[in-house]
Design a protein that fits this description.
alpha/beta; 9 helices; 51% helix
Length: 247
């Protein structure tokens, strides 16, 4: 039976790379996009790339910060593909600012998209996986969630919360043969880091032992490992992917 992977925020950056890598491994791909505009642009490109590899791929529009939107999307994915075998909670945004100047709106939107979405998606997908008695859940945290980062109070909090959810879900869902893990990327070359000023980029690179940003493909390879048969006994782990920046 062909397995299906659902990836949130998969129209660009890390999510797009994950979709393509899992397609190479034979997964059918459910590409979550925030809007129809996103689906018709980046989402359509990811869909075409996955189909060129030889697997079925479809775009599903949903704001993952909405519980009801996630419920409807998961229903559609299940009806379309028949199963959901891998869930990658990748959707994320930043609204950076110092604590003393951060607005409630900045805090709420980041925690809703980055953190609450993980609850929304696991809540909707886990009953399907429990009935299947198999599944892989991979949550995208960040080194900011493990070590903090000045100017990212909201982002760091959201990513730290994902770690707690990962550990608890691994314990709760393990008896049904469902593994739950998190990855914690450091500086990765994505649209999110492309907008940084050049001097900031150089400072960041100098903090990394490998003296470069990681690539989305390098992160996707770790996700593919966790989704594959070789990681069947790996659960409740947080894998840091940061080029030895935080050791």
């Amino acid at each position: 039976m062909t397995r299906t992977a659902l990836i949130t925020g998969a129209s660009q950056g890390l999510g797009a790379a994950m979709a393509k890598k899992l397609a190479e491994d034979g997964f059918q791909i459910a590409i979550n996009c925030y809007s129809e505009v996103e689906a018709n642009a980046g989402g359509a490109q990811v869909k075409a790339a996955c189909e060129a590899i030889g697997v079925r791929a479809e775009c599903f529009v949903a704001d993952v910060s909405s519980f009801e939107a996630c419920k409807e999307m998961v229903k559609q994915v299940k009806e379309t593909f028949g199963s959901i075998d891998v869930l990658v909670n990748n959707a994320g945004i930043t609204k950076d600012g110092l604590i003393a100047r951060m607005s409630e709106e900045q805090f709420d939107i980041v925690t809703n998209v980055n953190y609450k979405s993980v609850f929304n998606m696991i809540r909707q997908v886990s009953p399907i996986m429990m009935k299947q008695r198999s599944g892989r859940i991979i949550n995208v945290s960040s080194v900011a969630g493990l070590y903090g980062n000045a100017g990212q109070f909201n982002y760091s909090a959201s990513k730290a919360g994902i770690v707690g959810m990962t550990l608890t879900a691994a314990k709760e869902l393990g008896p049904r043969n469902i593994t739950v893990n998190a990855i914690a990327p450091g500086f990765i070359q994505t649209p999110m880091t492309d907008v940084l000023p050049e001097d900031i980029k150089e400072t960041c690179k100098n903090a990394v032992a490998l003296k470069r940003f990681g690539t989305p493909e390098e992160v996707a390879s770790v996700v593919a490992f966790l989704a594959g048969d070789g990681a069947s006994y790996v659960s409740g782990q947080v894998i840091v992917i940061d080029g030895a920046m935080t050791m």
